[in-house]
Amino acid sequence: MSNFPNRVDYLRISLIDRCNFRCQYCMPEGTELDYLLNQELLTTEEILILLQGVFIPLGFRKFRLTGGEPLLRPGVVELVRAIAHLPETEDLALTTNGFRLGKMAQDLYDAGLRRVNISLDSLQAETFDKIIGNRGRSRWQQTWEGIQAAHRVGFDPLKLNVVVIPGVNDREILDLAALSRDRAWHIRFIEFMPIGNDQLFRDRAWIPSEEIRIAIREKWGLESSSILGNGPADVFQIPGAKGTLGFISQMSECFCDRCNRMRLSADGWLRPCLLNETGQIDLKTSLRNGISIEKLRESVRQILILKPEINFKGRDTGTETQTYTRTMSQIGG
Q1: Helix (H) and strand (E) counts for the chain?
Q2: Which of 35, 120, 170, 225 has a 20 to 30 A CA-CA distance from 289?
Q3: How far is CA 261 from CA 8, 157, 271, in A?
Q4: CA-to-CA separations, 108 to 71, 171, 172, 194, in angstroms, rounded
């Protein structure tokens, strides 16, 4: 794999397109989503076949389970155990909204999961419930309890993902950043991506990470961190803090040249670039139609060669130049 400009060794695997939240930036309000039927989802066996027969031989060593909400997937603990115990697995993580984590954290940890990212877009229950589209039922407390459970069990690092939404939660940036001061938690501020949702926040779709860094720097100071992650985050630290602050700036600060990942959707589509739908291939249908694992591996190898050209390098407001057929929940984030 050394012939490629950047080693692509990280696969995000969506387990399900359903979610128990309806976050504005992931599932647009009022949009009717056609959820996948169970038979349309990659089975656990198919996921493991693709990992062992296609992705691992091509150099993939880091895996993240996503959704929708992956903890809604039946058998998720068993799948975690199977992937964690593959001898080639160097890193296994899971992204969740945290709502079901309180009851599942210990089982996931015992199965071999060590890293978890939890979405937390607000510390205020009312704002949180507005963002997630709670439909009359507050889910803040159970989500916060899920975060606490993950901390108690021993997940390290424990990362909290914050999508910064103009006029909604941008006033909480300092409060959220402060969570990293007394806890070894990693807070990651993510620029909103209008994928499949180009009407949302149209006047100003996203707040550049540099604006957020300036606000934090003026409050406490900010220095580069020696702790690096597996992804595209630029990592900083408030002086003396136990945790870190990460900034994922896919709209304002292009990082295509260091992208090391691909995405496998819940229904088996491999997507080389989050912001570009070019080059997707349907691995599930090919697998079920009896295409040999060797041919599937070669197809993915060719996509790896083309990936530097597929990566979407254009940056503007992000709302007008691209058309997406799937929302973020359907892609797998």
Answers
A1: 11, 12
A2: 35
A3: 6, 20, 9
A4: 10, 34, 31, 32
pTM of the model: 0.87
Nearest to 23, CA basis, from 182, 135, 190, 123: 135
181-200: pLDDT as tens digits: 999 999 999 987 655 455 55
What are 88-103's pLDDT values in tens digits? 999 999 999 999 999 9
How many residues are there in the chain? 333
Look at strands 244-248 and 185-191 and give their pairing: parallel
Task: Output the CA–CA distances (angstroms, integers) from residue 197 to 26, 97, 187, 201, 203, in the order listed.
Answer: 8, 20, 25, 9, 13
The answer to whether residues 83 and 89 touch, using CB atoms and an 8 Å cutoff, is yes
CA dist., res. 96 & res. 201, Å (int): 24
* Three-class secondary structure of residue 148 per DSSP: helix
pLDDT for the residue 319: 43
For 59, the 3-state DSSP assignment is coil
| Cα–Cα distance, 51 to 63 (Å, whole number) | 10
